[in-house]
Amino acid sequence: MSGDPNGASLGLTEDTQNPTLPSAPTPSRSGLTRRYGDFTSFAAALDYAAQGESGFNIYSGRGQLLEALPYRTLREQAISMAQRLLGLGLAAGDRVAIVAESDGDFARIFFGCQYAGLVPAPLPLPVAFGGREGYVSTLRGMIQSAAARAVVVPDVIGSWTSEIVEGLDLVFGGSPSDLYRHAEANVELPEIKSENLSYLQFSSGSTRFPMGVSVTQAAGMANARAIARDGLKVYPAEDPRDDRCVSWLPLYHDMGLVGFFLTPLTCQLTVDLLPTREFARRPHVWLDLISRNRGTIAYSPSFGYELCS
């Protein structure tokens, strides 16, 4: 379940009759001249994308639209989140660990960090860590490695929060809803420069303890530009064909975070997101959503295709 920027529940349930659920996802066509990551920062990229119609759409594991999040709305909520994060006593350059559920809260907090000059560190959900004890131990190691000053834990593992944050030197450790209850700081947001750190990205940990990599705004933008312009060759705005992304990939790994979260935003594409933790149970929902929304960009590791077949 996600919370809105004012702390109220969005009522995200599987009930198709729930009037709080959005009626339609954001459109594929943004209405903007296509730009391929030629920005000084990810905050600047969101500033531009917010002038159009595209955005993120959050779906349930059954393929039901839970939240339509146009980039213009995300920008407003991210700026509000930036003020909340700074209101905690965080300062530019501080690290914020976010256990990365594929939902609107992750987007709001990640981009709130971008506007506040903070450095988000997306961390994994307990999908492949051999049980609760092993997962908590690994997560705590990653939090300490990142020198995080705040840790955000989604409701799906909210009961584990005390074990995750116990004894750590933090100014905040809790859920997105807890974060929304904090007041906004009335301060001017910092200027974000291309040489500033944008985020920390951890390796998967499949062969050794996860290692964090520091990614600057300039490096992240160069990567996104190369993927969209040179690799995927995303259609320019004047082309009658539209590109649209559909993904179940985790937002704490490169293919999900960079490929289906950051890169699409830097070239103003709409993204339809399914929860990673439910993909294995209903892989056909990915294929159905590609068909339903006319997705054109939807890649996967080989096991994803094996599950579908």
Describe the fold and architecture.
With 309 residues, this protein is α/β, with parallel strands linked by helices. It is built from eleven helices and ten strands. The longest helix is centred in the N-terminal third of the chain and has 17 residues, at 71-87. The chain has a four-stranded mixed β-sheet, with helices on both faces. A four-stranded parallel β-sheet has the order 4-3-5-6, sandwiched between helices. The protein has a two-stranded antiparallel sheet with strand order 7-8. The chain has a single domain (42-308), classed as ANL, N-terminal domain (Rossmann fold), CATH 3.40.50.12780.
> Any guess at the CATH architecture?
3-Layer(aba) Sandwich
**N→C terminal distance:** 30 Å
CATH topology: Rossmann fold
The CATH H-level superfamily is ANL, N-terminal domain
Oligomer: single chain
How much beta, percentage-wise? Answer: 5-15%
Mean pLDDT: 91
| Helix/strand/pairing category | alpha/beta
Total helical segments: 11
* Count of distinct structural domains: 1
Please provide the ordered H/E string of secondary-structure elements: HEEHEHEHEHEHEEHEHEHHH
Text of the CATH class = Alpha Beta
Spans where pLDDT lies below 50 across 5 or more residues? 1-17
Q: Strand order across the biggest sheet?
A: 2-1-10-9
Major sheet, described briefly? Answer: 4 strands, mixed
| Rg computed from alpha carbons, rounded to a whole number of angstroms | 18 Å
